[in-house]
Write a structure and sequence with these properties.
The chain has 18 helices and no strands. The chain has helices spanning 17-32, 45-56, 58-71, 74-102, 109-116, 121-158, 164-184, 186-214, 221-226, 237-252, 268-297, 301-305, 313-357, 364-367, 377-396, 398-425, 442-461, 476-498.
Amino acid sequence: MGEPESPSSSEGKVLTKEEAYNVTISDQRLLDLGYRPKFRREMSLFGVLGISFCSIGILNGMSSALQTGLFSGGPLGLFWGWNICSFFMLLIAFSFAEICSAYPTMGGLYFWVCKMKPDVPILGFFTGWLYSMAMVFTGVSANLSAALYLSSMAEVGQGRSLTRLEIAAIAWAVNIFSGIVNTIGTKAIGHMSTLFVWWTLGGTVVLVTTLLVKAPMMNSADFVFTNVQNFTGWQSRGFVVLLGFLQAVYTLEGCETAAQVAEEAVRAEILAPLGVVGSIAGSWLIGLAYLLALLFAVQDIASVQATTFAIPIAQLFYDAVGPRLSQMCLIVIMVSQVMAAITTFTASSRLFYALARDNAFPLKKQFMTLNRFQAPYWGVWTSVLIGCVISCAYIGSAIAFNAILSSAAISVMLSYLQPIIIRVFWPDSIQDFGPFRLGKWSWPVNFASFLFTIFVCVLFILPTAYPVDVLNMNYAIVAVGGLLVMITINWFWWGRHSFKGLVKTVTF
């Protein structure tokens, strides 16, 4: 039987008796799942919680996607959509937390599917590849968004618009910076995720206070809670409001990222589930405060819709607080965006490691190699390389680039769907539960999560403007379809011969 190595800190310093006990318990749980511990457990609850907070990126996520709801449903759709979607995303988080507590290992959704449905290896293979690509695409989207915030700052401060090439070059720089931070390893990511929690709390206070104090005109409660806006061309008011729900879902994706660092956390069977649920609960409340401030302070929605700034929320800030304070607000969000981008590559690199460990990814030896900072650097720099290549598409066609990135949000939800389906139709798929258990509420929570995920996946591929033409068509279905075709070809050409399911690295 495999035995966990003697626990010690990254500097070789012997841990306290309690710390050593907790590390031993965590390592033994991993050994019971069939894997030898290779990562040092250097993440605390705050670090694990921060990873999911960072991946969700409430300030940058809401700011980047605000226009989706503002132009499709307006304040009513944004407010009610945020609360409704937050509730259902919390149910998904509870579902994931129960699974994560039973299987506290990196790989997250992929590992859960393989473990709960080992007789259908193709399901785990598809989940792993789809979710890993979704994480890379999400990171690329975050890096470009950081570049767009910088572009908007240049427009607000200097009146100069950056070219697509300049914006792409900034995105490449953020890509590479994300790779460097991830190469430094677990401790650096843990410190950054802890910083992110404080940055989010402090940034929310700064943004909310600035908007409410400096806005020349405050909107009424009637406007904030009942006003409907429609810049889509669709005539159905209900459908337009539903389209606005996409903003909330896009913002709240990412709670499961805590599972990606489960092998780097002490008592992961407890901390990872708390990170999953706590990140959604905290994001719901923080996002609500920020959203209300935006809705009370927005001066003219038509002005935001007609903006020439690289990112529409810059116009909202400009109208509400003036050019100087707008730049301060954009800096707060941009820093948050960069940290969120770093976290997505943390997740993708761990996914590549987990897939390679089970022969579901090529170059197994390389992708399982850790540097002296305990970072799976092959996965990190593969993510960076893919990100830089995809960013090149932005130079030639913003439509093609946006199609690739919009597929990320759908791919994440499709990946969510796999473990939820298993828990709904095979409720006995978990034999050995962890300390976090839903009990009699497990099936109702999973069933509600299943219905909501199906609804969102359908909503994500519907056209968002009418009449539909080549410029405003929702190409996400094409991008997702193309990705699924490539994964299918990969399975029949290579995967079915190499991947047979989870591969244990210890014997008993």
